[in-house]
């Protein structure tokens, strides 16, 4: 089967933008992707070639009709009609990338030795937005092995200011001595 994730994601973003519900659709699409990932039976059902489309539609409506924005619900109907409901995770991934591009947002992955408080997070966002000249969306992960400091990664930049990286640098220098 051909993967149409890029086309479907682009179409959803266009409609959500036109209907002025881009943020709502984005939030719900992420929740939907989590549901899809956590429920392998749902994935199998949506990918099953012998299960009638109407059965899939009925199931989607019974579960999501009152919970999803009408644009997203209609999108799921289109996905089912074109046998793409099994590709929701890929569609979400492409949608997120296209949404960021359209809104000049840079995804920044941050590894921190400890949990960042709101003040630290806000400060980091401010510094990164000034440096990158873009809006920043942080994806923060706590990695205790770093000991202290941060590791920051964008599409084109890696900054490692962790104690672990400093210790590794010292270790390398010591290897070359004598």
Automatic annotation (TrEMBL):
InterPro entries the record matches: ATP_synth_OSCP/delta_N_sf, ATPase_OSCP/dsu
Named from the GO MF annotations, one term is: proton-transporting ATP synthase activity, rotational mechanism
Topology in membrane: Peripheral membrane protein
What domain of life does the UniProt record list for this protein's source?
A: Bacteria
Q: Which GO terms describe its cellular component?
A: plasma membrane; proton-transporting ATP synthase complex
Gene3D superfamilies this protein is in?
A: N-terminal domain of the delta subunit of the F1F0-ATP synthase
Q: Which UniProt keywords apply?
A: ATP synthesis, Cell membrane, CF(1), Hydrogen ion transport, Ion transport, Membrane, Transport
Cell location: Cell membrane; Membrane
Residue runs in coiled coils: none
Q: Give the signal peptide, or none.
A: none
Pfam family for this entry, one? OSCP
Q: What does the function comment of this entry state?
A: F(1)F(0) ATP synthase produces ATP from ADP in the presence of a proton or sodium gradient. F-type ATPases consist of two structural domains, F(1) containing the extramembraneous catalytic core and F(0) containing the membrane proton channel, linked together by a central stalk and a peripheral stalk. During catalysis, ATP synthesis in the catalytic domain of F(1) is coupled via a rotary mechanism of the central stalk subunits to proton translocation. This protein is part of the stalk that links CF(0) to CF(1). It either transmits conformational changes from CF(0) to CF(1) or is implicated in proton conduction.
What protein family is recorded? Belongs to the ATPase delta chain family.
* NCBIfam families to which the protein is assigned, alphabetical: ATP_synt_delta
Please give the HAMAP family that the UniProt record associates with this protein: ATP_synth_delta_bact (MF_01416)
Q: What is this protein called?
A: ATP synthase subunit delta
Q: Which organism is it from?
A: Faecalicoccus pleomorphus
Q: What is the lineage of its organism?
A: Bacteria, Bacillati, Bacillota, Erysipelotrichia, Erysipelotrichales
Annotated gene: atpH
